[in-house]
Amino acid sequence: MNPPIHPLFEDYVRYETRRQFFRRGASFMGAAALGLLAPQFVFAGDKKRSALSPIGPHFPAKAKQVIYLHMVGGPPQMDLYDYKPVMQSYYDKDLPETVRMGQRLTTMTSGQARFPIAPSKYKFQQHGKSGMWVSELLPWTAKMVDEMCFIRSMHTDAINHEPAICYMQTGNQITGRPSFGSWVSYGLGSMNNNLPTFVVLVAQPSNTEQIQAISGRLWSAGCLPGEHAGVSFRSSGDPILFVNNPPGVSSDVRRKTLDGLRQLNELNYKLVGDPETHTRIQQYEMAFRMQSSVPELTNFKTEPESTFTLYGDDAKKPGTFANSAVLARRMVERGVRFVQIYHNNWDTHANVAGRLPMQCKDVDQACYGLIQDLKQRGLLESTLVIWGGEFGRTIYSQGGLSKDNYGRDHHPRCFTMWMAGGGSRPGTVFGETDDFSYNILKDPVSVHDFHATVLKLLGMDHERFTFRSQGLDVRLSGVEPARVVPELIA
């Protein structure tokens, strides 16, 4: 029986070349020990596997695929899911210092003379056997609360968008770390060699009052091999830039060109051993295969009219959230491992009354349609759907306040997210906040706790799932203590 191999050695073998091996004469014994692992195989316990194969799962998984719906800007939890009726009697009263407790504020409200409480102007009702309170802005979502797992006690360390989105997407507030989808790609590998393992869609909101920057940093592979980076699909023109042949270039010519490029890249790889050369080879080949797979994937003409009835009329409009949700389902059907959809303009510093209804209309029926569609196709059990933003909003108003309108600043201390399918526990309402939706009273869930729990659903042990970079074992759940939340798992 062979001893377990540290991930550092596996990655060394993955990219070590014969030429590099013999160059390491100064530390030959150490190199020889690594060489005993053989370039084709490594051993994990008593099982021999390819060094190019995925890492996991560590144990049987409940979910095989993920669709992550990120609401960029931070949805206001007290206007959607965290019902606070007591606040109606606090209208325009100052937020008590005993509630704020000296919490740092953004520069957008730190200079306000007072912090007047803005109760939600929207009506709430309880729904389902779970009794989950849902705003009138989300009538479609309200129909399926017993299929969902709500977390009302999420919290984060970040108070501004860039570090907060980065933290939620990569487990670190500093850019440059691998994204969630990249980790899943690295750990579990591909389910369809003709499509990317990790795909990103950026949906266009109906309202564009305050769009946040979204960049490729959020779906970067970071220190992981580059082939695990997200592939961004466009909503207009070619879905992927340069995937199609230039005018006058046939598939045969393209194939011969790629074969020549591969030979040159292989020579360079054997000489230098740069992992990015390996990535380049893989991506060129993937692009060639996608020339046939992507047009079929994005051809909605094969969808029956019942699909658009389920998701809503916007599903026919390229680039909308509803259209992206249908595309996400089609991707999951075809074996894409991780689909990330970003929906912008949730940063409601002002004009909640004017913007929030439009934001909710964009996503409400589409989310319902997605869950029901996955369910009826037998995919929901193995597909985890995640919905949420990077933080919440304040109960006090930013700027002017009236009974009919108000704004809300960033709030990291508590916010709401939900999951459905993929082994998450349906009909669950987890966590509790105070009457001001300002502080958590019960069952806090940190960003790293959330990551650890999702990895658990995917069959990965967040503490063992690491990648050696610059002398450190990097992991999605970070170095601070994080826990799997069993109450969220079916």
What labels describe this entry?
single chain; about 500 residues; alpha/beta; Alkaline Phosphatase, subunit A; nine-stranded mixed β-sheet; two-stranded antiparallel ribbon; 14 helices; about 30% helix; globular
Topology:
Layout (H helix, E strand, L loop, with lengths): L6 H9 L2 H6 L4 H8 L5 E4 L2 E4 L14 E7 L5 H4 L16 H4 L23 E4 L4 E4 L3 H4 L5 E8 L5 H10 L9 H9 L9 E6 L27 E3 L17 H22 L2 H23 L7 H7 L9 H13 L4 E6 L8 H25 L6 E6 L3 E6 L10 E4 L3 E6 L7 E3 L1 E2 L6 E3 L2 E2 H11 L9 E3 L2 E3 L16
Parallel strand pairs: 3-9, 3-10, 6-14, 6-17, 7-8, 7-9
Antiparallel strand pairs: 1-2, 4-5, 6-13, 10-13, 11-12, 15-16, 18-19
